[in-house]
Design brief:
The protein contains 19 helices and six strands. By secondary structure, the protein is mostly helical. It has a two-stranded antiparallel sheet with strand order 1-2. A two-stranded parallel ribbon has the order 3-4. Strands 5-6 form a two-stranded antiparallel ribbon. Helix 8 links the parallel strand 3 and strand 4. The protein binds arginine.
């Protein structure tokens, strides 16, 4: 009896261990990259005379047939295999026999998985960059159309000084442009091929690592085989960069949620990007913006997870590193989806220019310009600041804007005020006079928009 039970126990434990160890549930995501790496490997082996030309062709034919059958659904990637590498190799041997066993010559799963992950991340960096570029095109279009759409600029979420919608969106243009440049930097550093690192100490076969690297579009081969199999810095860099993208998107979403609220009504999110409430008929909720803001946490979590996984790992490969995949895949898919949805949301969003302009007129956003007017007419800045402060109090009491005061009222506070004060503090003047590079003046913003177009057409 005991033996029977023992046998049963061992079997179940084996199954649990197998399941715990297996990665096929998620590493099938880089099936295409695994095939690509294997083809490059056998091509190099044949060039070096380690395989014959016939063997190479047979293996490549077998790999192609596996791809075909997976694509047309006749071959399923199942949990029967521990990981995607075993799935491909087992099926290859099943199809072409003993020659298939030569595929893994001079290779270890350690450099194989290091290569697959790099190929996968490299492809994704391009896709993320493309999504960011599409977002920038939409932002710049909105900027161009709103060079003279006045709105309040805020500090501490309090109305501060008038800006334009173009200027506000222009701030995000800069952020996402830097995000693209981070993608570019990461690519430059990570585009080296670990294949040929073997398990950790290279191999005794006369591999041509540079050749294999070149046919896969890498700049070259990694210079140290222990580092080659155990480096995941580029994953960390990507997740840090994606966290920054999400942080930017989340800030933008937060603003759109505020602008979409009943109190502001600066924007109207298209019906396609909002939902109603099941109970409150008047509601139109900014769900997409809220979800993007909410999903930011997942991407930050992936970054913390991989940093923690990597921190205690002795050289070289350790199984802990299998944990680099699920969260990275999730973070990439999440960020890509968020960028695309966010782009669609702002592309279809309506801007209530009248509401924005009215809001900029309220809240004394021209108070600094009124003080500057006094300064230009000989009043020391500190005194001017005090005079305008008193005027603001007076206006709050009367519930009027600075522009609503009569010249006599202005002159009660300072005899320096003349008729030209009205022009000096008009919204248009306040914005148009800010003409230094980076400021909201429409003339200078127009130049920025043109520079942005040039940057976007350069295909950087
Ligand atoms: N599934 C493994 C991973 O993702 C592949 C490498 C396995 N290597 C090994 N020595 N067990 O890291």
């Amino acid at each position: 009896m005991a033996q029977l039970w023992g046998g049963r126990f061992t079997k179940e434990t084996d199954q649990l261990v197998y399941n715990f160890n297996a990665s096929i549930g998620f590493d099938q995501k880089f099936f295409a990259q695994d095939i690509r790496g294997s083809k490059a490997h056998v091509t190099m082996l044949a060039k070096q005379g380690i395989l014959t030309m016939e063997e190479k062709l047979e293996i490549i034919g077998g790999l192609d047939s596996i791809v075909r059958d997976v694509e047309n659904g006749t071959l399923k990637i199942t949990e029967k295999y521990e990981d995607i590498h075993s799935f491909v190799e087992a099926n290859l041997i099943e199809r072409i026999g003993d020659v298939g066993k030569k595929l893994h010559t001079g290779r270890s799963r350690n450099d194989q998985v290091a290569l697959d992950m790099r190929l996968y991340v490299r492809d994704e960096i391009h896709e993320i960059d493309e999504e960011l570029k599409k977002l920038l095109i939409v932002i710049n279009r909105i900027m161009e159309e709103n060079l003279e759409t006045y709105m309040p600029g805020f500090t501490h979420l309090q109305k501060a000084q008038p800006v334009t919608l173009a200027h506000h969106f222009g701030a995000y243009f800069e952020m996402f442009k830097r995000d693209r440049s981070r993608m570019h930097d990461i690519f430059e550093r990570m585009n080296y091929c670990p294949l040929g690192s073997g398990a950790l100490a290279g191999t005794t076969y006369p591999l041509d690592r540079e050749y294999a690297a070149n046919i896969m579009g890498f700049y070259g081969a990694t210079a140290n085989s222990m580092d080659g199999v155990s480096d995941r810095d580029y994953v960390i860099e990507l997740l840090a960069a994606l966290s920054t993208v999400m942080m930017h998107l989340s800030r933008f979403c937060e603003e759109i949620i505020i602008w979409n609220s009943n109190e502001y009504r600066f924007v109207e999110i298209d019906d396609a990007y909002s939902t109603g409430s099941s109970i409150m008929p008047q509601k139109k909720n900014p769900d997409i913006a809220e979800l993007v803001r909410g999903k930011t946490g997942r991407v930050y979590g992936a970054l913390m997870s991989i940093l923690t996984t990597m921190k205690g790992i002795p050289l070289a490969y350790n199984k802990d590193m299998q944990e680099d995949k699920e969260l990275t895949f999730d973070a990439i898919d999440t960020a890509k989806g968020c960028i695309a949805l966010f782009t669609g949301m702002i592309d279809t969003m309506q801007f209530r220019k009248d509401r924005m302009e009215d809001s900029a007129k309220q809240g004394f956003t021209n108070a600094t310009d009124a003080a500057d007017y006094l300064v230009k007419n000989g009043v020391p800045f500190r005194d001017a600041h005090g005079i305008i402060g008193q005027i603001v109090l007076y206006c709050i009491d009367k519930n009027i804007a600075l522009d609503d005061m009569s010249l006599e009222e202005f002159q009660q506070f300072s005899p320096v005020f003349k008729e030209d004060i009205y022009d000096a503090i008009s919204l248009k003047t306040c914005v148009e006079k800010r003409m230094t590079l980076g400021a909201p003046g429409p003339a200078v913003m127009k130049m920025v928009v043109e520079d942005n177009k040039k940057y976007l057409s350069e295909g950087e």
